[in-house]
Amino acid sequence: MLNVDEIIEATSGRIVSLVKREFSGISTDTRTISPDEIFLAIKGKNFDGNRFFFDAIRLGSGAILNQYALYTEGFLSNGDIDLKATVITVDDTLKALKDIGNLKRRRFSGNVFAVVGSNGKTTTKEIIASILSQGFNVLKTPNNYNNQIGLPRALSFIDAKTECLVLEMGTNMPNDIKSLCDIALPNIAVITNIGFEHLEGLKSLEGVRDAELEILPYVHTVVANADDGFLMSGLKGDFRIMTFGIHNPDADVRAFDISHKKTGVAFKISYKGEVADINTKLYGDFNVYNCLAGISCGILQGMSFKEIKYGVESFQAVQKRINVFEHDGALIINDSYNANPSSMAEAIKELKRLSKEKKRSIAVLGDMFELGDYSKAKHIEIGKMLKENKIDLFVAVGEMMKYALEEFDNAGFSVSDSTTAADIVLQIIKEGDVVLIKGSRGMQMEKVVSKIMGSD
Fold first, then answer.
1. Residues 338 and 441: beta-carbon distance below 8 Å
2. What does the pLDDT average to over 151-162?
3. What is the rounded distance in angstroms from the CA atom of residue 226 to the CA atom of residue 255?
4. Which CATH class name applies to 108-313?
5. Can you tell me the distance from the alpha carbon of 303 to that of 207, in angstroms, rounded to the nearest whole number?
């Protein structure tokens, strides 16, 4: 539990009203707050959490506000009103959130696994948590809470039972990872890969690697993808390296005999002469890498192959990340959560593989964002890849995907938004088709899935 004394110690805050002393954690959204949580009002460019003060104390157990907002927003006309909830004021609520998370972390003595990289972070984080939870009480960042608000909020839920932390860290600018590490103080880094992502802020592939590797000074162990030579060449420092891979024979944890089945991908793993069979509910070679990263963490935590195997095999795919299902005789690949050039390429490979025994392969692809000066070239590459893989039909969604369509000399459509794309897909989809749906988050490609399923 998070108590008032910890909040005051971390933030140097001031108690305005004290009704409840302990909370299950911190909430920054009154729409999802639980009765035992304390609300922390974050003010951003387009929102002001202080405005939801009364909702917070009605739905939760209290609130942490900017010290000026309590009076300037008219919450208190005088100082002696009975608030009937715990209210604490601080100078800076975002800094307070980080300070509370950091205090909870510094009082925690177990391993802190931090997942960084260009692709697969959320799935890898979830697989690690699934494996470690077979023998330990694990606290993980929920969903994709990998930023300056989500990560410290997750740390606020550390309690006496917590034995391992599994955290996801995201970046789109230099120093993002560093500032998250300053809060979470990880001791084990898990690096999935380095690819083209967030190039508006990170500028180049070298800039991406530099940003992801900001984690290195904080850790004593690095779990890294041995098949990513560009990543491996950047690993310099005083830490242990544990590698995983498929193609590199020197990888510490290696997958081989990979087979793709209707129920998921299966493979064998080897580590120091010990071998195990793994049968997953996941699809694609890229998910083999995600599993290998998780398996490596299980080994570092001293878990048995039996525990590790169960943790991997019981894991279900994260929503909107290569979820494969049948609907009215067609096979749908829902990878609508997000996209960058590397993940788009892997998804197209999976579309090609799954459509070998089907009638048609259909790619419904939305624009990839945050590519800066590389945007046009990277979208053109996607069009070339669709052509090389002989995809039958391409629905290009967005302004940049028009460039991909120009490179694709088979049947295609160009539309401006996902709603229009959904209407087209409903008109053309047939029994036996395999349909891939993917794009950057802002393209809202999940609308296409909802329309197919009849839920929109």
1. yes
2. 94
3. 12
4. alpha beta
5. 36
Q: Taking the CB of residue 31, how many other CB atoms lie within 10 A of it?
A: 8
Backbone phi, psi, residue 206, to 5°: -65, -40
pLDDT digits (tens, 9 = 90+) for 203-244: 999 999 999 999 999 999 999 999 999 999 999 999 999 999
Whole-model pTM over 0.85: yes
pLDDT of residue 420: 97
Cα-only R_g, the chain: 24
Q: Domains of the chain: which residue ranges?
A: 2-92, 108-313, 323-453
Instruction: List, for residues 176-187, the tens digit of each pLDDT value.
Output: 999 999 999 999
Asked if the domains at 108-313 and 323-453 fall in one CATH topology, the answer is: no
In whole angstroms, what is the distance from residue 328 CA to residue 433 CA? 10
Report the CATH number of the 323-453 domain: 3.90.190.20
- 150: CB partners within 8 A, 6+ apart: 141, 142, 143, 144
Assigned architecture for domain 2-92: 3-Layer(aba) Sandwich (3.40)
Single out the residue of 310, 294, 308 nearest to residue 242, CA to CA: 294
